[in-house]
Write a structure and sequence with these properties.
The chain is built from 15 helices and no strands. It is mainly α.
């Protein structure tokens, strides 16, 4: 990896590891629904002009139905579920449990027609990763947190389905156009939701909450997607999926250092088991790779080229 690629990888790993911390800060004063609306609207306002200058909007709008499905799976449902779960769950636990997405993506890839050869390592990875989730949910959390865990399961499934939709139906479209319009569509969807539920802020939020919203929208959404495109161009979409293993570690460290969240033995155990499980299930099938023609990895020509593993096609889940 080049020095530029290493810098981009490290920056994106940190940026996509800290949203859980800022979500925890924001939901202390804002409703989960309004936080999604504010984050999407601000991020879309930043990305839409860039996408327009690159003429990346019209091709995406021609497939508005698929775009809407992607937005619902990748943003509308997961971001609300994350926000609502963090009302009660520690931010570090949220980030850790979302590391199990590659485990769910195996089944999603199968449903979308992407046959993944099940090997001994795949089965071992699924078992190991599931044991890690069980260690966190069954041993590290109380019974009162189960509803929040159920919300996180919605986010996990959404984050597995979103990239699958992208890879199957939108792989030839410009990525920045897809994300800009998906964020805009999500904001539009949440305007009536916030209005009907009456979840508008009743007072001006504190400075730290305003900063948290700005960081989530500007840094963790708009800037993160721009860095992601640059990283794909630098190292390719397949190797970029390794960033999935960095984000949970950043989330755990950030929660412990900034919010004083406890890191128990079971947190550490679950973290290790989940990451080992995800690593095993995303290992390339060498026998299949040897039999198949060599895949070209040119992200400049194929903005959403599917990754070799079924866990993340592009973009990786954005908390």
């Amino acid at each position: 990896m080049t020095r530029r690629g290493l810098f981009l990888f490290a920056a994106l790993g940190v940026i996509w590891g800290i949203p859980y911390l800022f979500i925890k800060i924001a939901v202390a004063e804002l409703s989960p629904e309004f936080l999604v609306l504010a984050r999407c609207a601000l991020a879309a306002a930043l990305l839409l002009p860039i996408a327009a200058r690159r003429r990346a909007l019209l091709p995406v709008l021609r497939r508005w139905r698929v775009l809407l499905a992607f937005a619902v799976a990748e943003i509308v449902l997961p971001w609300y579920a994350l926000n609502a779960a963090e009302v009660t769950l520690p931010s570090s636990t949220t980030g850790l449990l979302l590391a199990s997405i590659p485990l769910v993506a195996i089944g999603v890839a199968f449903l979308f027609g992407r046959r993944h050869r099940v090997t001994v390592l795949t089965v071992l990875g699924l078992i190991t990763g599931t044991a890690g989730v069980a260690a966190v949910v069954g041993l590290d959390l109380g019974g009162g947190d189960l509803s929040a865990v159920a919300l996180l399961s919605v986010a996990v499934v959404g984050y597995a389905v979103g990239p699958a939709i992208l890879a199957k139906y939108m792989s030839d479209l410009p990525g920045i156009g897809v994300m800009a319009l998906a964020l805009a569509a999500s904001a539009i969807i949440y305007v009536p939701i916030v209005g009907i539920t009456g979840r508008w802020p009743t007072a001006v939020p504190s400075v730290e909450v305003i900063v948290a919203v700005l960081v989530l929208a500007v840094v963790c959404s708009a800037v993160a997607f721009l860095l992601m495109f640059a990283l794909i161009a630098e190292i390719g979409p397949v190797r970029m999926t390794a960033i999935t293993y960095v984000n949970p570690a950043v989330a755990v460290v950030a929660g412990a250092l900034v919010l004083g969240e406890a890191v128990t033995v079971f947190t550490g155990l679950g973290f290790i088991l989940i990451l080992i499980g995800c690593w095993l299930v995303t290992l390339p099938d060498r026998s299949a790779a040897a039999a198949a023609p060599t895949e070209r990895e040119t992200p400049e020509e194929e903005p959403w080229q599917p990754a070799a593993s079924p866990s993340t096609t592009a973009p990786p889940p954005t908390p």
